[in-house]
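User: Hey, my collaborator sent me this sequence without any context and asked if I could get a structure. I don't really work with proteins. Can you help?
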Amino acid sequence: MTESLNSITVTGQGTVQTAPDFFNINIGIEAQQSTVREAYAKASEALNAVNAKLLSLGVAREVINSSSLDVRVDTRWQEGTGSVVTGYTVSSTLSVALRYDQGAQDIIAAVVDTGNNSVRLNGLTPVLANPSAAQDAARAIAWADALRAAELYAVLAGRTLGPVSSVCEGAIHDGAPRPMLARAAMSTDSSMAIEPGQSNVSMAVQVTWQLA
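Assistant: No problem. I've predicted the 3D structure and written it out in structure-token form, which is a compact way to encode the shape of the chain:
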């Protein structure tokens, strides 16, 4: 809380839970070889295999996105010589949107097997197709939270709340995506059910009231 002689400013927070509509999986492709050309060729082979497998399993091309491509020089320290190049690592990242009723666990297992040790799953992120209703509900809770605190402070100060002089809204972000416990050793025989669960939608509002 911050306050001046004739006003009081408080921040309210509100959170609601809602089921996500789909989720994004982040797939990492990485290949290490002695030359850039060889590393790039191996990474491209794994990437193309993953893309082909996704398409063959009915995943639409428009929900598959390549988000990065990186080339790293691998070195080691050699006494008397210094840093010595030992090889090159080429990495790329794919983001794929999947529905919960799409047999997602089977798609994920098949993708990992396709790329062998060059493919890993970095995690998944639940997504709301239209978060507006949940955001509005969180706004109402945040406003009530701010009003409750402001009324309490006004009573403690021996004053009453007057009109609102300013409102500033902010969203509260939930940080990192939820982890997926999957690695290249996962086989297509294993089945790990993926449930939508509940996602938090949070909003914050800073309100200033004049004091009467």
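In plain terms: Residues 175-190 have pLDDT under 50 and may be disordered. You can pass these tokens on to your collaborator as they are.
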